[in-house]
Here is the input.
Amino acid sequence: MNHPVLSALLPVVLLIAAGVLAGRAGWVRAEGSKELSNLVLMVLMPALMFRTMSRVQAGAFDLRPVAMYLFAAILLFALMLAWQGLNRRGIVLALTVTFSNTVAVGISLVGLAYGEDGLVILFALISVHALVLLTLATLLLELAAAREGALAMAGAGQALRTALLAVRNGILHPVPLPIIGGLLFAQTGWLMPEVLDRLLQLLSAAFGPLALLLVGVSLAHVPVLAQLKVALALSLLKNLAFPALTGAVCWAMGLSGLPLAVMVVAASLPVGANVFLLSQRYSVAQDLVATSMALSTVLAPVTITVVMALASGLA
Here is the structure.
């Protein structure tokens, strides 16, 4: 039980399983799950994002490995869009195969496997991971939704107004707004009042467990076998193809040692819960994302172990 991979992943698996049990027992109905998901997205996740970014000082981290990681992520994101199309489903699936659970799983795993030096590298990634990938996905989802609405209503003038509204909604959104706000606050050098910091800490701590429970509740109402084939493909892309691409990009750009190992392992982490929350918000591929997230987490003890072994050889 002291194995770093199992120690990091077992609580995630058990939380999802507890959510499945709650859903099957009828303790949380499907409509209740949607309302709780809104609570997580609108209250808990912004608190986590703001508090995390409020501690990030510009220039405090070496962002070169992070830039390589994000280059690989955006490259795979673009390839998924080319395959699935620039629509809400394609965007959510592209995020599924590129967005890692860097906080709930990554921090404990990297801490146990690589120590404090590894955590410093991971924290550099966490500081911009959500900012780049979630903001990109949110803007594209808003634009896709706007385009669908404009096509339904027809008319160039209406399409332009809808597109401008989509850009505004993509910025004034519970994902990018607290990230940007927290980052700006960090640069002021001000100290956050202790009471406010404690409140944000409590809300942040509730995010991970509740989001994972909601994934399980959603799975309780999903015909998992019907989604299994596509979910397995997405999980393998996330757990194996993405770290392979990340390793190739980092190696080609001259990265080596511990930074290379941490970036590759971060890419191999299972799908983050934020993807499921966005799929619910935009009412697209919810069953498939929930199944993919659970499956990538179940497969992770094997896939991460393989990736860590290969990464140590590269490093």
